[in-house]
């Protein structure tokens, strides 16, 4: 393994925490004897091109310093290779790190963990989801939650999470269940009017909302959570339970496990790892052991 490590940095993550996190992470790696270079792209395509070049040139690891959006970008560079991924989680949601039990908003601690993992070859091979040629690590969201994302992304104000709180309120006022057709790899088809459908490789999205609480990132299967048609009052009662994962036993919620899922619905956008991947229909496949993650011995 090369002793040169690449820090892949989003300086704007977590309202500027990304820029501040790079230094303690780099210091921890240098203290452990590694050479560190930093990659910051002018935009997402440029950043990805630079990350892919680092992987191609044989970097010892690609270490993402930012939130789930940057981790998703990093996955596009390392998935299917033997280059391990480290995560310094300093974004808003950090759901990928949460699913693996990695430190959150502790750049020095996360950097030390990455250094320890590199020294001891402490890696974990985990599954990823794939939609066409796009990889994702946590959850593919569609329905009410993706419409909240659509609306929030169109809004200039307010800033930060308040924007999405307002988007939730506005979507609740307007939302109607959507007819979905869900097809699984065994040929099973489920046609249902649903509030949302979430396809989980990881357990959570949105900063700890455990929508697919039983998901295991190394079992070769997605956990699929379907929230059926329900009133606004029911949705408001069920919604707070998502943070503990206790919504799964509610009568309006159904769960499935599958390695391949096709989602079909009109006028619905899919978001994976919080990033827009396109309008339905979409086909998601679970690819076993698609990426090596530096865990320092943690098992998630």
**Most strands sheet:** 11 strands, antiparallel
Mean pLDDT: 91
The total domain count is 2
Outline type? globular
Which structural class best describes the helix and strand composition? Answer: alpha+beta
Radius of gyration (Å): 19 Å
Strand content: 25-35%
Termini separation comes to 24 Å
Q: Find the CATH topology of the largest domain.
A: Tumour Suppressor Smad4
Low-confidence sequence ranges: none
Summarize the structure.
The protein has helices at residues 13-31, 44-56, 68-78, 95-100, 107-120, 144-154, 161-174, 232-238; strands at residues 4-9, 35-39, 62-66, 85-89, 123-131, 134-136, 139-143, 178-184, 189-200, 222-228, 253-258, 260-264, 269-272, 275-279, 282-294. By secondary structure, the chain is an alpha+beta fold.
Write structural notes for this entry.
Strands 5, 6, 7, 8, 9, 10, 11, 12, 13, 14 and 15 form an eleven-stranded antiparallel beta sheet that branches. The chain has 300 residues and is α+β, with helices and mostly antiparallel strands. It is globular and about 55 Å long. The longest helix is centred in the first third of the chain and has 19 residues. The chain is built from eight helices and 15 strands. The chain starts with a strand and ends in a 6-residue tail after the last strand. Its EC number is 2.7.1.107. This is Diacylglycerol kinase. Keywords: Kinase, Transferase.
Present the secondary structure layout.
Blueprint lengths: L3 E6 L3 H19 L3 E5 L4 H13 L5 E5 L1 H11 L6 E5 L5 H6 L6 H14 L2 E9 L2 E3 L2 E5 H11 L6 H14 L3 E7 L4 E12 L21 E7 L3 H7 L14 E6 L1 E5 L4 E4 L2 E5 L2 E13 L6
Parallel strand pairs: 1-2, 1-3, 3-4
Antiparallel strand pairs: 5-6, 5-15, 7-9, 7-13, 8-9, 8-12, 9-10, 10-11, 12-15, 13-14
Helix pairs in contact: 1-5, 2-3, 6-7
């Amino acid at each position: 393994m090369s002793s040169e490590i690449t820090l892949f940095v989003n300086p704007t993550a977590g309202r500027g925490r990304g820029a501040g996190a790079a230094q303690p992470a780099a210091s921890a790696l240098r203290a452990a004897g590694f050479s560190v270079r930093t990659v910051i792209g002018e935009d997402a395509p440029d950043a990805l091109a630079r990350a892919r070049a680092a992987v191609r040139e044989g970097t010892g690891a690609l270490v993402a310093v930012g939130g789930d959006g940057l981790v998703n970008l990093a996955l596009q560079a390392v998935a299917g290779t033997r280059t391990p991924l480290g995560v310094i989680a300093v974004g808003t949601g950090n759901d990928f790190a949460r699913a693996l039990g990695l430190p959150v908003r502790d750049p020095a601690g996360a950097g030390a963990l990455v250094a320890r993992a590199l020294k001891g070859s402490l890696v974990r091979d985990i599954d990823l989801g794939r939609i066409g040629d796009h990889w994702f690590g946590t959850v593919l969201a569609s329905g009410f939650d993706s419409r909240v994302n659509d609306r929030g992304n169109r809004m200039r104000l307010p800033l930060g999470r308040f924007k999405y709180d307002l988007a939730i309120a506005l979507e609740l006022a307007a939302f109607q269940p959507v007819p979905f057709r869900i097809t699984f790899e065994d040929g099973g088809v489920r046609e249902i009017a649903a509030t949302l459908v979430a396809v989980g490789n990881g357990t959570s999205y949105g900063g700890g909302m455990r929508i697919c609480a039983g998901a295991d990132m190394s079992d070769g299967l997605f956990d699929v959570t379907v929230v059926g048609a329900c009133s606004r009052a029911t949705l408001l009662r069920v919604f707070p339970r998502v943070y503990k994962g206790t919504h799964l036993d509610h009568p309006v919620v159904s769960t499935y496990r599958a390695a391949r899922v096709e989602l079909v619905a009109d006028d619905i956008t899919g978001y994976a790892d919080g990033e827009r991947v396109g309008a339905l229909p979409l086909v998601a496949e679970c690819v076993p052991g698609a990426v090596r993650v530096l865990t320092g011995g943690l098992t998630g």
